[in-house]
Specification:
Layout (H helix, E strand, L loop, with lengths): L7 E2 L4 E2 L4 H11 L3 E5 L5 E6 H8 L3 H6 L12 E3 L4 H11 L3 E6 L2 E7 H11 L7 E6 L3 H15 L3 E7 L9 E6 L4 H10 L11
Parallel strand pairs: 2-3, 5-6
Antiparallel strand pairs: 1-7, 3-4, 6-7, 8-10, 9-10
Helix pairs in contact: 1-2, 6-7
Length: about 210
């Protein structure tokens, strides 16, 4: 999964000389929260967010007509290459606590990708866009347990919606296999996994 497959291409832009009222109208009209700022040659020079606009002008329409984008924008906005893997974007969102990344191909602005875009991508990766049930399996010995798990799944004859190995358990970080299966196949698959001496996980509670 790559950023360019999930970004919004050719995003709307504004110029540094535009007024904040102009930007606010654009955001209100299209539901934007982040707008790239470019110069007269189309080169990226910054990004302005709805928070910056609201903090600067509040509800003062006259102030919005006086202040320009250049006065509030971030001149060094976070960027990511179009060819970057989507997990690189996830890492940037998590570490930098930001809501959007401007997508570049060399020095050209080609898109924008938001946290919402990334969540949507992983929603599909985890199979949450399809009706199914979750089954999780402990993997204390990752290689051996995965081999046993997929051997059991092969004998079930059922299609698996998605299969992901994660380290998201809170009891020491032991890996787990996350499966999403068709509802009618859940009981059979759980039985086969238990028969293969694998441990099925239940939700953890504090």
């Amino acid at each position: 999964m790559f950023v360019e497959d999930h970004m919004t291409p050719n995003p709307r832009t504004v110029c540094a000389e535009d007024t904040l009222q102009t930007v606010r109208a654009l955001m209100d009209r299209h539901g934007f929260r982040h707008v790239p700022v470019v110069d007269s040659g189309g080169r990226l020079v910054g990004m302005v967010t709805d928070r910056q606009v609201r903090s600067a002008i509040g509800y003062d329409r006259q102030l919005g007509e006086k202040l320009t984008v250049a006065e509030v924008m971030d001149p060094h906005p976070p960027t990511i290459p179009a060819t970057a893997a989507l997990d690189e974007a996830v890492g940037l969102f998590f570490r930098k606590h930001i809501g959007a990344l401007l997508v570049m191909r060399q020095d050209e602005l080609v898109g924008i990708v938001t946290r919402h875009d990334v969540i949507g991508a992983f929603f599909i990766v985890l199979g949450l866009d399809q009706t199914g049930k979750r089954v999780e399996v402990a993997l204390p010995d990752v290689r051996e347990d995965l081999a046993h798990a997929f051997g059991a799944l092969r004998s079930s004859g059922e299609d698996i919606i998605t299969a992901v190995v994660s380290r998201m358990r809170r009891d020491g970080g032991e890996p787990a296999l996350y499966l999403r299966v068709k509802k009618k196949a859940q009981r059979q698959i759980e039985r086969l996994l238990r028969d293969a001496a694998l441990v099925l996980l239940e939700p953890e509670h504090d």
